[in-house]
């Protein structure tokens, strides 16, 4: 057997652990492994395919990023090509990628990615490439699995940042607004906000009312708490409003933190500051949880290949790692359930969710 591994979309801490888990489990079976550089670029002649042996994956479990590189612009089904006049068009180059896959004598592909990369993997599977998917995203919004690797590390980073903001917020009697990642799902904001003792948490699943946010800030003032911490997901939006985009053409989110801070200052008279954590949340060494989950996902992907379970995605369903159809995972993206005990906990301990 000769298998390929690719990492696509935004990186997440734990990617290298998945690569190591998969490569060592494959070598253990006497298989060969190669890595596709930068998403699918290595199969499109835009980059290389590199051999992955035990040496290549030595000492990488604790490293952030991906040794294979990644891209969120290299979808072979909708490959972006710049025209002479500077405009962009899309071209389907999937047949080229598939031809390269066969020319390399490959038997299976482990596609590590979030919803976008898993959708590409699913399309490749439909065109005859034997694929096993591995769910990756710090946002934790892939369906079918209780968790994606990278999320725990991102939450840890966000919680540490919120912890540090408390003393400066209190000293200056300010409102600090922290914008965290979370395009469609508020997991990072909710978990880091509760763990970091935020006063307000705004998530995409609950459209917020800025008046309610200000009420909370004012109530704290009355109680002698002259500072507040507001954690907002980048994908949060006001009731009846839309998400905040800094680059509408590429649907890049950003700016909601500043907007919320500005309105709080205007409506309460409090001095406010904004901190955008941004890509800091995608960096750094993965937590123990993410390293272990990554290694388990990687090894499980190889076991599923050995069992011929193609078109499936490895998924955490404690205490097991199971195989779920990629199609099923894509059909039910994971959002924060509004009836979850975590939401109830936030409300019970007095955190405003802006509703
Ligand atoms: O999907 C993960 C994520 O971190 C989102 O929360 C965010 O909107 C996006 O990636 C940003 O990705 P990039 O800056 O790489 O385009």
Structural features, described:
The protein has 355 residues and is an alpha/beta fold. The protein has 10 helices and 15 strands. It folds into 2 domains: 2-149 and 286-331, Rossmann fold, CATH 3.40.50.450; 154-283, Phosphofructokinase domain (Rossmann fold), CATH 3.40.50. It has helices spanning 15-28, 94-103, 115-126, 151-172, 187-195, 210-222, 256-268, 288-306, 326-331, 341-348; strands at residues 2-7, 32-36, 49-51, 79-82, 88-91, 108-113, 131-135, 175-180, 200-202, 228-233, 245-247, 252-253, 272-276, 312-317, 320-325. The strands form 4 sheets. Strands 3-2-1-6-7-14-15 form a 7-stranded mixed beta sheet, with helices on both faces. α4 packs across α5 and α6 (210-222) crosses α7 (256-268). The longest helix is centred in the middle third of the chain and has 22 residues, at 151-172. It is elongated. It starts with a strand and ends in a 7-residue tail after the last helix. The model has no long low-confidence stretch (mean pLDDT 97). Bound molecules: 6-O-phosphono-beta-D-fructofuranose (F6P). 6-O-phosphono-beta-D-fructofuranose binds at residues 10, 72, 114, 137-139, 181-183, 234, 253, 282.
- Would you identify the CATH architecture of the largest domain? 3-Layer(aba) Sandwich
Instruction: Determine the N-to-C terminus distance.
Output: 55 Å
How does the major sheet shape up? 7 strands, mixed
Radius of gyration: 22 Å
Strand order of the largest sheet: 3-2-1-6-7-14-15
Tally of structural domains: 2
Order of helices and strands: EHEEEEHEHEHEHEHEEEHEHEEHH
Supply the CATH class of the largest domain. Answer: Alpha Beta
What fold name stands as the CATH topology of the largest domain? Rossmann fold
Helix content: 25-40%
Mean of pLDDT: 97
């Amino acid at each position: 057997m000769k298998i390929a591994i690719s990492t696509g979309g935004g990186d997440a801490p734990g990617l290298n652990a998945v690569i190591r888990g998969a490569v060592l489990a494959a070598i253990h079976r006497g298989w060969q492994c190669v890595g596709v550089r930068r998403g699918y670029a290595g199969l499109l002649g835009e980059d290389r395919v590199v051999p992955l042996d035990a040496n290549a994956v030595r000492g990488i479990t604790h490293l952030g990023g991906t040794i294979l590189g990644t891209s969120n612009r290299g979808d072979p089904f909708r490959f972006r090509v710049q025209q002479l006049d500077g405009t962009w068009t899309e071209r389907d180059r999937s047949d080229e990628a598939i031809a390269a896959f066969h020319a390399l004598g490959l038997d299976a592909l482990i596609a590590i990615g979030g919803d976008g990369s898993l959708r590409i993997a699913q399309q490749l599977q439909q065109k005859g490439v034997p694929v096993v998917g591995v769910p990756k995203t710090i946002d934790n919004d892939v369906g079918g699995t209780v968790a994606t690797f990278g999320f725990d590390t991102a939450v840890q980073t966000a919680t540490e940042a919120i912890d540090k903001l408390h003393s400066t917020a209190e000293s200056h009697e300010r409102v600090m607004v922290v914008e965290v990642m979370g395009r469609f799902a508020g997991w990072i904001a909710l978990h880091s906000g509760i763990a970091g003792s935020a006063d307000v948490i705004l998530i995409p699943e609950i459209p917020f009312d800025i008046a309610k946010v200000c009420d909370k800030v004012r109530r704290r003032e009355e109680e002698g708490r002259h500072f507040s911490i507001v954690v907002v997901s980048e994908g949060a939006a006001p009731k009846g409003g839309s998400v905040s985009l800094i680059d509408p053409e590429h649907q890049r989110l950003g700016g909601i933190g500043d907007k919320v801070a500005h309105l709080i200052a205007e409506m309460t008279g409090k001095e406010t500051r904004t901190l955008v954590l941004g890509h800091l949340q995608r960096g750094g060494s993965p937590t123990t949880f993410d390293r272990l989950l990554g290694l388990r996902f990687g090894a499980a992907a190889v076991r599923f290949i050995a069992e011929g379970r193609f078109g499936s995605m490895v998924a955490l369903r404690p205490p097991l790692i199971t195989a779920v159809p990629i199609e099923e995972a894509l059909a039910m993206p994971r959002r924060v359930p509004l009836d979850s005990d975590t939401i109830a906990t936030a409300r019970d301990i007095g955190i405003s969710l802006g509703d």
